[in-house]
Amino acid sequence: MARxxxxxxWREWVGLPxxxxxVKAKIDTGARTSSLHARRVExxxxxxxxxxxxxxxxxxxxxxxxxxxxxxxxxxxxxxxxGAGGRTEIRPVIVTMLELGEHVWQxxxxxxxxxxxxxxxxxxxxxxxxxxxxxxxxxxxxGRDHPRLREAS
Length: 153
What we know:
The structure is a single chain. By secondary structure, this protein is mainly β. It is built from 1 helix and 10 strands. The strands form 2 sheets. Strands 4-5-6-7-8 form a 5-stranded mixed beta barrel. Strands 1-10 form a two-stranded parallel sheet. A hairpin with a 5-residue loop joins β6 and β7 (about 85-100). The longest helix is centred in the last third of the chain and has 4 residues, at about 125-130. It is globular and about 45 Å long. The mean pLDDT is about 90.
């Protein structure tokens, strides 16, 4: 039953290979769903397939270095946002590949405005369950940089 899981810290660099970027993420086992900071979110359809286009801002605390991306839209999810006084938000949901160290897997991610949050991405418990053990006393157990890091332009 016991399986060796990789140990990660409370914050880590997470690669998003579908978008060729990496973002600094907060690992939050109190949050069920993962969330990515996105602006100019626009749902549309191409050849009968639901898609969403949006801008990702990989660098914290700056609007520089934005990356325009598109992803399949799998639906919308109602999320209770404690940071907004417990207000419920309806967010678009995508499925994308994530990289953490040598681990690569697919996860659902909601798109939201995280301008006022300290991290551009929140990695929730659904994304880390069964794969990692979180050590809340450490940071960047998988390394202090990521091969997909881009310089802000």
